[in-house]
Amino acid sequence: MIKKFSILILSLAMVLSFGFSTSAAPKNQKENTAAQEKANKEVEVKKAEIQEVMRQLSEYRTRKLLNARKQDGSLGTQNDISSNLVDDRYEMELEAKLNALGVKKLTQSEAEAIYSQSNSDEVSAMVTVPNSNANVKWYEIRYSHYKNNQSYDLQDLYAQGIGYNTNLSVARDGATLYTNKQIAINNLKEVGSIYVEKFVGAAFSLVPLVGWAPWELFFQDNTNVTNNSHVISYGSLSTICFTYVKLAGKDDSWQKLSFVSNTFSIAAGHTLRGIKNGLPFTHSKDTNNTVYAENYSSGYKAVDSYLNTSTQRSSFARYFRFYNHDKTANITAYVLNPSVPTQITIN
Description:
By secondary structure, the chain is an alpha+beta fold. It has one domain. It is built from 7 helices and 12 strands. Strands 1, 2, 3, 4, 7, 8, 9 and 10 form an 8-stranded mixed β-sheet that branches. A 4-stranded antiparallel β-sheet has the order 6-5-11-12. The protein is elongated and about 75 Å long. It starts with a helix and ends in a 13-residue tail after the last strand.
């Protein structure tokens, strides 16, 4: 509940920030009316709700895949695990919430019918949906956005990884972060962390996502605990948002793919081995985290890019990195940063 509330507050703050930054139009352009600004903010609040439900779906699916690998006992059978996992009741409930928010789940024929044409010479709007939805699901939502007293029709196309056999997924089992370190846990403020490389401002920067205190990966009582090794099995599922823009009232052949951004969820199983009170111990802990690119799914950025192709056309988080306590050891995983939907594939 705290995570959900924080994400909604952050999203609302971003909405207000965008609203103020776009309120001053050049003298030869008309400013949005108060009603148009209100409509823009209402759309962004709704999209924040959609992002929250999609986050829940993505985190649940990453946990589900990680647990399936643990139960299978053979980490080399990801193909079978991926193809045999079907939507359960919880996933269907979340998809029903998406539908209630105006999000439509697309079939292959629906996607091809919608995105088969474009008059844009810059970016093709064509979409090829995989024959099977066992690994990727496609969703869309349509909405309006106002800028300089002009209405634009936007269409967000979401591709969400749900299985391993797609380039929307990265996974690794039994990756050693460190071994034979002899680390006294109760002397540390942090035993591990995740950093993410994002495009922030005008350059890529490595920013912290989460840091784990000793009791978050070990026990409440960490006295007399010395850790010798930290091994991680992880999986990540990405959701890519392709935002198309056109003048209000035009048909889809006039739309342009104007902004692409990503988010991804990470499920990780941590296995820590060491000594507690002079005796060997092994302790396991699972974590789940979600990363958002700056301006993820931003209608404001998409319209700016549509009007001026020299502006930013994409925003990505490029990789995530696990660190040990003093950042002398790390494990890095790169995620997909596509420019068009056809770059999303199944294996």
